[in-house]
Specification:
By secondary structure, the chain is of the alpha/beta class. The protein has twelve helices and 16 strands.
């Protein structure tokens, strides 16, 4: 039986939002309160406060970033404020909102070309925090530039634009200035999140107003720019019984010291090619033709500086992810040489093991989410909300 085709339903739902976009342009990019969504089944008005709009982050190229803002359902004036960056680069913020940590979920059902049906997501992180879902970098989702050169982007410009966006957004929303601020994201955005925090803490515009009440960051199954992110796929696949002993041993022998994503010797390249035909490609809900430059080699130095300065970090990994396997994440965390504060142990939700965790002296916590894939909250929503709730409240997992 065929189930919901998320790609087509995304297109239909976003098309239905287009009339609102024309209104935003007429109102000179003013914020717009959304009280109704087509296909929302449970009641006539949304049971949460949703705002959308544009903010200009580059006047010369007229770069406009689109956002969805959802207030905390608990205490918006005191609960943390999260800026959520979705990975890719090139994945729509609506993906994070409706498939991961936001208050909307698609109903999984046979697709017949009709309007997508949406329901309230009971394990949304907006239960306890305010969240801005940002379409970034430019070219992602509804974000755009009025000049072709404006679409030339990369790690550095993405992080710079995110800071400009935040400063302008907080000027327009001064009631959230005192809320604890966290930058968060997953997958490739996990590489950019620490850059955003670094720019907030060390940027040239530190004297500009308003000031940020930055507390730390969260990254899920994150890229770092290090070889280990990709190289860990091979031992992970072997440990899961996906590839043969012979292939694993051949790669281990011929690719030692190589970057598996860009191998330089022919025997290694041939074996990695076999490993890639062996993987089943999953449907991608992101665009991959952005004019994007990976102009930061690694974010590890940024992470060390941020956590050493007293700011908090949560790094979490779905333990069934082969895109950025937890084994590689554990390896680069180990390379930071932080002393262990709370040794490796299980953490629990509703009396069941939800994963394993370890915390370190430099304000960093690492956690695996048992049975979760690349975007952990998509697979284990209840467990990830519990993880987030405990960490954001300064409790042990």
């Amino acid at each position: 039986m065929l189930t919901v085709n998320y790609h087509h339903r995304f297109i239909i739902l976003l098309f239905l939002l287009l009339p609102c976009m024309f209104r935003w342009f007429l109102l000179a990019s003013a914020a717009y309160k959304v009280t109704h969504l087509p296909g929302f089944l449970q009641q006539s008005t949304l049971p949460f406060n949703l705002e959308t709009g544009y903010i200009e982050v580059d006047e010369f190229y007229d770069v406009q970033l689109f956002y969805y803002f959802i207030e905390s359902e608990r205490n918006p004036r005191e609960d943390p404020l999260l800026l959520w960056l979705t990975g890719g680069p090139g994945c729509s913020a609506f993906s994070g909102l409706s498939l991961e940590i936001g208050p909307l979920k698609f109903i999984s059902e046979r697709y017949n070309g009709s309007l997508p049906n949406l329901v309230y997501h009971p394990y949304s992180w907006t239960k306890i925090s305010n969240i801005i879902f940002l379409d970034s970098p430019v070219g992602t989702g509804f974000s755009f530039s009025n000049h072709p050169e404006g679409y030339e982007t990369g790690d550095k410009s993405w992080s710079k634009h995110a800071v400009i966006f935040l400063r302008k957004w907080l000027k327009d929303h001064p009631q959230f200035l005192s809320n604890p601020l966290y930058i968060a994201g997953d997958s490739y955005a996990g590489k950019v999140v620490p850059l955003v925090v670094h720019n907030i803490l060390n940027g040239k515009d530190l004297e500009e107003q308003p000031k940020f009440n930055i507390q730390g960051y969260m990254i899920g199954n994150p890229s770092t720019g290090e070889f280990i992110d990709y190289n860990a796929q091979v031992p992970f696949a072997f440990g899961m019984g996906i590839i043969s002993d012979e292939l694993y041993q051949g790669i281990d022998k011929n690719c030692e010291g190589e970057d598996y994503e860009n191998p330089k010797n022919s025997p290694c390249a041939s074996l990695i090619q076999i490993f890639e035909e062996g993987k089943v490609k999953e449907w991608q809900r992101c665009i991959h033709d952005l004019n994007y430059t990976k102009d930061v080699r690694s974010n590890l130095e940024y992470q060390v500086n941020i956590t050493t300065s007293g700011h908090r970090a949560l790094v979490y990994s779905g333990d069934h992810d082969m895109v950025v396997p937890f084994m590689g994440t554990k390896e680069w965390i180990k390379s930071l040489k932080f002393s262990i504060r709370d040794p490796w142990r299980s953490w629990h939700v509703s009396g069941q093991v939800a994963g394993y965790t370890e915390s370190y002296s430099n304000n960093m916590t690492f956690a695996t989410v048992k049975g979760a894939g690349h975007t952990a909250p998509e697979y284990k929503a209840k467990e990830c909300l519990a993880m987030f709730r405990r960490w954001i409240s300064h409790r042990l997992l």
